[in-house]
TrEMBL record:
<keyword id="KW-0436">Ligase</keyword>
<dbReference type="InterPro" id="IPR025110">
    <property type="entry name" value="AMP-bd_C"/>
</dbReference>
<dbReference type="InterPro" id="IPR045851">
    <property type="entry name" value="AMP-bd_C_sf"/>
</dbReference>
<dbReference type="InterPro" id="IPR050237">
    <property type="entry name" value="ATP-dep_AMP-bd_enzyme"/>
</dbReference>
<dbReference type="InterPro" id="IPR042099">
    <property type="entry name" value="ANL_N_sf"/>
</dbReference>
<dbReference type="GO" id="GO:0016878">
    <property type="term" value="F:acid-thiol ligase activity"/>
</dbReference>
<feature type="domain" description="AMP-dependent synthetase/ligase">
    <location>
        <begin position="10"/>
        <end position="360"/>
    </location>
</feature>
<keyword id="KW-0472">Membrane</keyword>
<dbReference type="Pfam" id="PF13193">
    <property type="entry name" value="AMP-binding_C"/>
</dbReference>
<keyword id="KW-0812">Transmembrane</keyword>
<feature type="domain" description="AMP-binding enzyme C-terminal">
    <location>
        <begin position="410"/>
        <end position="485"/>
    </location>
</feature>
<feature type="transmembrane region" description="Helical">
    <location>
        <begin position="62"/>
        <end position="80"/>
    </location>
</feature>
<dbReference type="Pfam" id="PF00501">
    <property type="entry name" value="AMP-binding"/>
</dbReference>
<keyword id="KW-1133">Transmembrane helix</keyword>
<protein>
    <submittedName>
        <fullName>Long-chain fatty acid--CoA ligase</fullName>
    </submittedName>
</protein>
<dbReference type="InterPro" id="IPR020845">
    <property type="entry name" value="AMP-binding_CS"/>
</dbReference>
<dbReference type="InterPro" id="IPR000873">
    <property type="entry name" value="AMP-dep_synth/lig_dom"/>
</dbReference>
Length: 500
């Protein structure tokens, strides 16, 4: 397999007039999509971007995202997608760490990106949502840059519970083969399908299962820049959406719309859920109301993302993440990497064509994550007699809020910058709609004073809006282990705040 972007060129050759991308009234055909992406590639080349260079992309789900993404790939660059909700200091870190040459963002939300780019000393290009005309050369690039299977296509940043975010290196083969398996064995999509693109394209789930799979098969991807349950139902009806992909909170939002019954969603043939565990009750109620099946899967940024799935033509087990997909092996191991006995809980380890090359510039972290060719996920699971996997807990202390990953350490670091703060523990608490909500227990320095609201606003100014702790309370001291390490698991949550 060569450049992942060859899929766009092929789909455009086969059906140049077929609609490829839609965002309300704005529509791009495959021919227009290809030409725009080639012109972006030419513009990036004119700006000095060489094959192997990194291009930052800070865009929501607007038409400009797929055009710039594929344009960068056609130029031979690797893309560094970022959440447009990030603050300047967060964008700065990603730009510095990845060594990006250029960063592209929307005119309307450019300030943090412009600030970060100026600090790092890279060019920031502002584009419009419907067309990245500011990044399109007059003439298209004659020939797309050839890439090999092992060449880098995307760096996706993810964090552990300690240290700074790490960039997962996904190759053209990683992403291309994961999209192919999704298209052939999971979504089974064709050029006649309409895929709902409300999963963020800067996240690997939306990127692979939405955008790359649609482009591979010549399907239409219809985009919603910001998810809203009522809007999603409208778009499903308007565009006759056949495949809906989302995180559990999206399904819950659509299910709980007061006028859900009013919308004709009979075009839906398949719903795909991932990102966090789907509550069985939400799955059952959604399927009853909307008359379609939900298939739940599992994956991570480091696995491109799909690793296992409840396959369409096999038994589906609610509450399970299914069985490994084609080209992927999964097993459960103990702390020493040995297989656990049948029925026992172990850490999911993954090997296959979907596993990242490593963490960008972090050989030590890579060796720790993939010590023996098997990627350690940090998720604990068990299997049943049929080989279906069931997640039981996370080894890592990551919080999944509405499908977004929030890493306690990052929020704690922001709180530690406050002069009155001595100790912090950030934990996840249960939330009926979001799955988990971010909460923080804070101990102040002796003699120091700070109000809860003040601390909350302090963090809010430093991290993306979905990350800051909605719940924060003061304590005299935090629970610690024998070495003095703060034990997040032992933090007591006040009754009025909720439960873990």
């Amino acid at each position: 397999m060569t450049n992942l972007a060859q899929n766009l060129l092929r789909s455009a050759d086969e059906g140049p007039d077929r609609p490829a991308l839609r965002m309300d009234d704005a529509v791009l055909t495959y021919g227009q999509f290809r030409d725009a992406a080639l012109r972006v590639a030419a513009s990036l080349r004119d700006r000095g971007v060489q094959p192997g260079d990194r291009v930052g992309l800070v865009l929501p789900n607007v038409l400009a995202f797929p055009v710039v993404f594929y344009g960068a790939l056609l130029a031979g660059a690797a893309v560094v997608p970022m959440n447009p909700l990030l603050k300047a200091r967060e964008v700065q870190y990603y730009l510095e760490d990845s060594g990006a040459r250029v960063v592209v963002t929307l005119e309307t939300t450019a300030e943090p990106v412009r600030e970060a780019a100026a600090t790092v000393g890279v060019e920031a290009v502002m584009v419009g949502p419907a067309s990245p005309a500011e990044l399109m050369a007059d003439e298209p690039l004659a020939e797309p840059v050839d890439r090999s299977d092992d060449d880098l296509a995307v760096i996706l940043y993810t964090s552990g519970t300690t240290g700074q975010p790490k960039g997962a290196e996904l190759t053209h083969a990683n992403l291309g083969r994961n999209a192919l398996t999704t298209a052939e064995t999971l979504a089974e999509n064709t050029a006649d399908d309409v895929i709902m693109g409300c999963l963020p394209l800067f996240h690997v789930f939306g990127l692979t299962c939405g955008l790359n799979t649609a482009v591979l098969r010549g399907s239409l991807l219809t985009l919603i820049p910001r998810f809203d349950g009522a809007k999603a139902l409208e778009v499903i009806e308007r565009d006759s959406v056949t495949i809906f992909e989302g995180v559990p909170t999206m399904f819950a939002a659509m299910l709980h719309q007061p006028d859900a019954e009013r919308h004709d969603v009979s075009s839906l043939r398949l719903c795909v859920s991932g990102g966090s565990a789907m509550p069985v009750e939400i799955m059952r109620s959604f399927e009853e109301r909307f008359g379609c099946i939900i298939l739940e899967g599992y994956g991570l940024s480091e696995t491109s993302p799909v690793a296992s799935f409840n396959h369409p033509h096999a038994e589906r087990k609610p509450g399970s993440i299914g069985t490994p997909i084609r080209g992927v092996e999964m097993r459960l191991v103990d702390d020493d990497g040995n297989d656990v006995a049948a029925g026992e809980v172990g850490e999911i380890a993954i090997r296959g064509e979907n596993v990242m090359q490593g963490y960008w510039g972090r050989a030590e972290e890579t060796a720790k994550a993939i010590p023996d060719g098997w990627f350690r996920t940090g998720d604990l699971a068990r299997t049943d007699d049929d080989g279906y996997f069931f997640i039981v807990d996370r080894k890592k202390e990551m919080i999944i809020r509405g499908g977004y990953n929030v890493y306690p350490r990052e929020i704690e670091e922001a709180l530690y910058e406050h002069p009155a703060v001595a100790e912090v523990a950030v934990v996840g608490i249960n939330h009926p709609d979001l799955g988990e909500e971010v909460a923080a227990a804070v101990a102040l320095k002796p003699g120091a004073g700070a109000e809860v609201d003040e601390l909350r606003e302090f963090v809010k100014a430093r991290v993306a809006a979905y990350k800051y702790p909605r719940h924060l309370w003061l304590v005299d001291a935090l629970p610690k282990g024998p070495t003095g390490k703060i034990l997040r698991r032992a933090v007591e949550v006040p009754e009025e705040v909720g439960s873990r």
